[in-house]
Every structure is written in structure tokens, then in C-alpha cells.
Design a protein that fits this description.
The complex is a heterodimer of chains A (352) and B (319). Chain A has 352 residues and is of the alpha+beta class. Chain A has eight helices and 15 strands. Chain B has a domain of 175 residues: Diaminopimelate Epimerase, Chain A, domain 1 (Roll), CATH 3.10.310.50. The chains are: A alpha+beta (352), B alpha/beta (319).
Chain lengths: 352, 319
Amino acid sequence: MESVKYTCPNCCADLKFDPQQQKLTCEYCLSSFTVEEIRKLCAKTENSIPQEAVQVKEDFENHTHLYRCDSCGAEIMADDQQTATFCYYCHNPVILAGKMGGEFKPDKVIGFKLTRENAIDDFKKWIGKRLFVPKDFKSEQQLEKLTGLYVPFWIADCHINVDYSATGKKVRHWTSGNYRYTETSTYHIVRRGNLVTRGVPADGETKIDDLLMEAIEPFDYKDLKDFSMSYLSGFFADKYDVDKKQVFPRIRERSTQACSSLIKESISGYTTVTPLAQNYNISQTDWKYTMLPVWFMSYMYKGKVYEFAINGQTGKLAGTPPLSKPKLALVSGIIGAAVALAGMFIGGAFTI
Amino acid sequence: MKKAGSALTVFITIVALIVGLFLFDSFVANTSSQNLYKGFSDDDISKSGIIDEHGLFAGDQSLLWSLNDEIQECARKNNMNILVFLPDSSRSHYTDDMVCNFTTNELNSVFGENTDGILYYLDISGKSPASDDIATSARTNLIFTDSICDSIFSLLDSYLPSSSSSEPLDPKKIGEAISKFCYYVDYYNTSTPRESYFHEPTADPPVYVYMKNGETFVTKSAPPSKKWVVLIISELIGALVTLIIYLVSKHNYKFKSKTNPRIYLASDAINLTQNADIFQGTHTTKTRIESSSGGSRGGGFHGGGGHHGGSVGHHVHHR
């Protein structure tokens, strides 16, 4: 299978997307080009995405693909999902154009804004507050595992018909003489209408934990651009393996939660509210297949994999830090022992 | 298999910790400071008796000698120094604290600090109300507790004149009261179960009086029984603090921060065609309030003295 690369029009070295400049830069002659410029200059490369996905049956069977690096000629092995990677030998960026044909061609992309250094700083700040992580989790070796990845996302705009009704009760108490009075007023609450949720994202990749991706939201869609492969240069990228149909239940659930939250907010002043009907029907959904930037890191500790993700646009970080239980037990024990000793001193157990 | 091994390690660690703490507690509880106890000496018998500052028995010396003999016999029998002090009118301005200071100094100066002794300050100075005091030293603190001294005072009240009475003092009546005092000292010393320990915080230095293996101790350090309680309570608090820190910190290492999907609701596309709260009706219920009443309790008086030496406790009584 063919791979593509973006080369510098001046010196023919490989171009990489620079999140700081939001341009493709050449590390050798220091030239830089906007995505639009590269689109024009490398029209042939841009248009190399085939209109129909051509996948060899055998490839699918063993889920492994071989590509030839245009820089050094080495053969690169990649799995089904990878659409952008690096050559193992010369470490030049490789975009696997053949993987992004047809339905796998993203509509939109948000380029990385957070550089690797920014991501490492954010990670260090986040982990700095956690004292009981294993020592090697903070090591430079571990930080090297931080990987910039374009994650395939389905972004949905949902038009929702709301039909909500409930019984609300307002209870008032007062005392007069030897009697306590309770007045209960009953109301029929009705909320009907149309709502729209815009840009509800759901990652289209099984390898990545959905909750982890939801935790680093939101992405700022103002930076959404028409897809160009040049954004992928210098990063890893995957194509989706979960289609619209499969992510729709997640989208529906989150859209419903958003509507439900709005409806609940509009009901106030009641002592109790008992819903009678809560119907949130999605009448229309508009989809965009988008590549969103995420810095990733995983860490194996005591047989369990801990994953971290940093929003490559906003820097929002999420993940479960590994906990060194012996370290925590030791520190908790020392503090507990200090408290106990203080109690013994105050209680006079050591008076001689 | 790995989990079972880990559980066994935790179990062994906990058992080792408990055994280690027990050994530590045992060592700390049984380590005491220097024993300041002087006990009772037969050589001091002659110092027991009545100090008649008031001169009540000046006209009846034989009664005074007889009472002194009775007191010394009681002192010998009970292995404790006994002194009865009859103040004159120069001490009629004494407050309770002054009486306590005086009796402490008197007991210490006559018999020495930390000796087994009891001093009965029988207030016939003319002060109204009269402030009687029983000062106890060393081992006697474990016997003559507040409740016992209160019962002695109330039993002796019938022999003593009221401070508001204008009648002259009758030496015989006072003599009877002193005899009865000796009787009660003997009675309570032989029959009363002893307190586990006594603490005198106003002493300089503060001391504890307690018995261990049949021996009396007067030490700056707390008795083993109190130390055990302090140690165990402190360890339980420490264990609780450890557990709380462990669980709170562990909780902080759980995955959090799921984004609220409410942010995806387009504010310009909210179109509620029906947004109504329709009133349906009201109903009122009434319940009778049950009345209740409570009582009140009074407080008591606790007097205190200044700093003093030895292990002297006080029990003040107003007539």
C-alpha cells in the first residue's frame, strides 16, 4: 500500500505540522507554509486519497498493513486503524493516505494547538499534586511515551422534540394555637418544544475509553477546519472503527441528558416534583466525521493499564493516576503515628 | 493465588503491628518515674494528735491527753499520721483556698511530704460558715475520697455546733467529734475498697498516687492503668486518622470529571412552545401539637488551692 508525505518545496525535506505556528514547517531550511499553501503546492499529494476505499481482503483478515517509507524505503507495519504514523527507522512522518479514502475521509479537523512541551508541562503540573504515584511514573522515560494522536470523532447536531410533564407540590407549614397546619398546593407542569444540541462528540475508536474522551471535552469548534492530510504530518492518527450507528446511543444519551438538565432547571420552587412523562425524541441528526487532537499516554502498573489524555487544543487533562498503595499506607501510617504520639504526650503517657 | 498471598501479607503485617503496639504499650505503661512515697514511720507516732491553737482544752488537759492517746492509737493501728487542728480566731478570715494551703503546709511540715497522713481542720475559729477540711496525703488519698469525706462530715455535723450558733463551744462535744473522727478513719481504712489512683494537679510537681503489686507509689508519671487507657485511645485515634487519610487519598486517585453535556445545548435554538405550571388545587391538614416539659439541675461547688509540695488532697465542708 502507498504512503504519502509532504515535502518542503525549497529543500525537499519532510514537513511537519507545528501546533504553535499552525503551519507546516521544515526542520532543515526553517521554511514554513500554511495549510492552504501546501494544499496548492502539493495538490497531487492532497488528491492522492482514492475516492473509494480499496482494501485487500487478506489485509483485513490479518489486520496488518505494510507501507513503504518514502524517505528511507523501509517497510512500515501498521494496524487497521492507523492513518498517520512515523517510520521506525528514519522517524520521518508517514501518512497512510490509502486508509482515508471514501467513507474514512474526515470532513473536518482541529489542528494541534498544544505542543509536546506544553503537554508535558500540563502533565507535570497535574501529576505534581499527586504524591502517591509510583516514582517511575514521573520519570523522563515515561514522559517520552506522550504521543500526539488525531482521534476520529463523530460530531452530531441533534434536533430534539421535548414532551415533559410532571406533578409539582409546594408544601407550607405553620403553627397556630395547639395545631400545626400543612398546606399542599398541586401544580401540573408542562414543558413542550424543540431543542438542538450542537457538536456532541463521540469518539469512533474502540481502543480508547469513551469516558476518558468525554472527560477532556469540550473542544472549541471555532478552530474546526476542512480536513487536510497535512495536519496529520508529525502526529499519529487513527481512522474510526465504530460507525455512526454504533455511537448513536451515546449521542442520544448525552443529548437527552442535556435536555433533561435544561428542563429541570426551568422547574423551581417546588417541594417535590414527580415526572409523569419524559419524552425526548431525536427527529434529525447531522453528522460530521472529524479528527480531534489528543495527547496520549499510558502506563502499566501492577498488571493494570492507566491511560491519560490531554486535549490537544485546550490542554484539559484527564486520567486515572496509578496509586502506590505501600507509599500511601506508609505516609498515612506516619501521620497517624504522629497523631497517636501527640495524644500520648498530651495524655501524659511519657511523663517521667 | 497472588491475591491470597497479598491478603496473607496484609494479615501478618496487621498482627505484627498489634503485637508490636502491645509490647510498646506494656513497656511505656510499666515505666514509671522515681517513687517519691515516704510511707509511715512509727517514730512519727508522737507527732499525731491535736494541735489546740484555739485553747479549747486549756481548762481540761486530761481530756486533751486522752484524745491524743486515742488519736495515736488509731494512727498506729492504721499506719497513718493523724492530726486534728483546732484554729483560733486569727484564722477566721481564711477562705477555702487559704484553709487548703494551710492544712497542706501543716501536714507536710509536721510529717514530711508524701507520708501517709490525714489532717482534720475542725473550724472553730468563729468563721461563718465554718470551713472544715480533711487533708489527705499519699496513700490516704486513695481511701478518703470526696464521697467518704462528705459522709464523715455529715456524720460529725451532729457533734459540732452550727457556725451561726451563739452558744459557747463545749470541749466535751468537740472531743466526742474527734473520737468519732478516729472511729471513721479506722472504719473506712479497713473496710473501703481503694481508688485505683489519685491525681494531685496543684502539687509542685503534680503527682499521681496509686498502688501496684501491693506497693504504694507517688510519682510524677501516671499510673499504668491510666497510661494504658491513654495509649489505647491515642492509638485508636491514630489508626482512625491513618484510615481516613488512606481512604480520602485513595478516593482522589479515582477517575473524575465527566463533562456535563449541557454545554452542547444550543442556546439560540431553545424553543419551548409550551412552558406552563398549571395550578390544580390546595389542601390543608392540621395536627395537634403534643406538649412536653423538662426539669432542671443545679450545679455544685469545687474549690481549689495554690501550688504546694507532696501529694495532699482536700475535702472542704461548710457548716
